[in-house]
Every structure is written in structure tokens, then in C-alpha cells.
């Protein structure tokens, strides 16, 4: 009897170690994927900041010139000052969004409006879509769609799919994003115009490190599924007959107060 208890304890301990190792691996993959996502967001933020910074530089040069030119009066100089103030206000509005790109700090589970979250993500993806020459069409409800979870992880899951759609859609193509509710679930649906997913590899598409592209690590969809399931949801793929794919993320709605 004692020997059986010892054997059971050993098996339980080994199972716990395997579970812990798997959890660590999933978290390591999430962190690696988060680094890639943040790089895209920072690139977009820096691109948006470049506009007002260039304008400020130009206006300061013009103001400096006007101060040396005795033919120009105070009114012309004040116009440059006002434009400088305007660009500083733009920077003041843009910097909080850039600084809010979250890292690995712990977050509490809280109610979040997916409509607002998707609006923010589309704004962050604007630069990426312009660079790749694709347009993103949205269809969002007028009222809030509230789910409970960690905002940065919810954002990472949706952004992974959205960025992947930007990468596989040809230049001049379209990406469709729709948010709606079905009974007790919120559904985020993202449709791309990529080459599609062959039926033969569909069962492997969520496996870690599985990819059909040489320049990709193959962790994005694996991490996305992990994040969605962490919030009590599920993710599904629907290949389209004409090419392209619809990725659907299902998340439980928050109970009404």
C-alpha cells in the first residue's frame, strides 16, 4: 500500500512538473509574440509623432527667420507661435496613447468595451495598413459590447489576427472587421484576402511554431488561441472558397449589472 502511495505521489509530481513546464513555455511564447506586436505599435506611434515634430521644426525655422526680418510685423510672428502651440497640443494628445502600449505588468480582470478597444486597435494599425497598401473596413455596433478580462491580453489576441491579415492580404486588397453579439457571446470576425489555408494543414494552424512562411516564427495564432481560451472563449477559422480566411474570436459577454 505504501509503495502504491509513493508511486502515485511520484506520478503526480511528474505531472505537476510537466504542467508547469508547459505553462512556462506558453508564457514565453506569449512574451515573444508580445514583443513583435509592440514593435509594430511603436513603429506606428513613431510614424504619427514624426508629423507634428517636422511641422514644429519648420515653424521654428520660420519664426527664427521672421525675428530677423524687420519687414515682418508682430502679427506674422504670432501666427508662427500659434501654429507651434497647435502642434504642441497635438503631441500632448498623442503621447499618452504611445506611452500606454503595455508590457508585462500584471493586470486585473475588469470589464472592457470591445467597441472602444477595436477602435483603438484600428487606429494603431492604420500605419501598418497604409504601408502594405490594404484597406480595413469595419462594421461595429453603435452600443458597447462588454467582456471581462485583461485589456492588454484581449488587445494582443485581436491585434495578432489583424496584423496577420495585413501581412497576407495583397496590396490593394481589403480586410473586413466585424464585431457583433450572438446570445451570450461577443464575436470578433476578421476576413482577409490572403491565399487561404489549405484543408490539409488546417488542423495544425494553431500549433506552436507551425508556419507556411519562411520569415515567421509561427507563434502568433498559437498565442492567440491561448489568450482567447484564457478568457473563456474560443477561436475558429473559416477558409473561403475564393481564397482568404475568416478568423472568428468568441468571448463570453460580461453579466449585466
Describe this structure in words.
The protein is α+β, with helices and mostly antiparallel strands and 257 residues long. The protein folds into two domains: 1-105; 110-252, Histidine kinase-like ATPase, C-terminal domain (Heat Shock Protein 90), CATH 3.30.565.10. Helices cover 55% and strands 17% of the residues. It contains five helices and seven strands. The strands form two sheets. Strands 2-4-5-7-6 form a five-stranded mixed beta sheet, with helices on one face. A two-stranded antiparallel sheet has the order 1-3. A hairpin with a 5-residue loop joins strand 6 (234-239) and strand 7 (245-252). Helix 3 (114-132) packs parallel to helix 4 (151-168). The termini are far apart. Residues 99-104 have low confidence and may be disordered.
Features:
single chain, 257 residues, alpha+beta, Heat Shock Protein 90, five-stranded mixed beta sheet
How many structural domains can be distinguished in the coordinates? 2
**Order of strands across the biggest sheet?**
2-4-5-7-6
Oligomeric state of this protein: single chain
Structural class: alpha+beta
Give the uncertain stretches in residue-range form.
99-104
Major sheet description = 5 strands, mixed
Order of helices and strands: HHEHEEHEEHEE
Q: How much strand content do the residues show?
A: 15-25%
Amino acid at each position: 500500500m505504501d509503495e502504491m502511495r509513493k508511486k502515485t505521489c511520484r506520478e503526480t509530481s511528474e505531472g505537476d512538473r510537466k504542467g508547469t513546464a508547459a505553462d512556462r513555455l506558453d508564457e514565453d511564447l506569449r512574451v515573444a509574440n508580445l514583443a513583435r506586436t509592440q514593435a509594430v505599435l511603436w513603429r506606428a506611434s513613431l510614424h504619427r509623432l514624426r508629423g507634428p515634430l517636422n511641422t514644429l521644426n519648420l515653424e521654428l525655422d520660420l519664426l527664427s527667420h521672421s525675428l530677423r526680418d524687420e519687414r515682418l510685423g508682430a502679427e506674422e510672428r504670432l501666427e508662427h507661435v500659434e501654429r507651434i502651440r497647435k502642434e504642441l497640443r497635438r503631441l500632448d494628445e498623442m503621447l499618452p496613447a504611445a506611452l500606454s502600449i503595455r508590457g508585462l505588468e500584471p493586470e486585473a480582470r475588469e470589464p472592457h468595451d470591445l467597441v472602444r478597444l477595436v477602435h483603438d486597435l484600428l487606429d494603431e494599425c492604420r500605419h501598418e495598413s497604409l504601408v502594405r497598401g490594404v484597406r480595413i473596413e469595419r462594421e461595429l455596433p453603435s452600443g458597447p459590447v462588454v467582456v471581462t478580462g485583461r485589456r492588454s491580453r484581449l488587445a494582443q489576441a485581436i491585434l495578432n489576427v489583424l496584423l496577420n491579415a495585413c501581412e497576407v492580404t495583397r496590396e490593394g486588397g481589403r480586410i473586413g472587421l466585424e464585431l457583433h453579439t450572438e446570445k451570450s457571446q461577443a464575436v470578433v470576425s476578421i476576413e482577409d484576402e490572403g491565399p487561404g489555408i489549405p484543408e490539409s494543414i488546417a488542423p495544425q494552424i494553431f500549433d506552436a511554431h507551425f508556419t507556411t512562411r519562411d520569415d515567421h516564427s509561427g507563434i502568433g495564432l498559437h498565442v492567440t488561441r491561448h489568450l482567447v481560451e484564457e478568457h473563456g472563449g474560443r477561436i475558429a477559422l473559416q477558409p473561403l472558397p475564393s481564397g482568404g480566411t475568416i478568423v472568428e474570436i468568441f468571448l463570453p459577454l460580461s453579466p449585466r449589472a
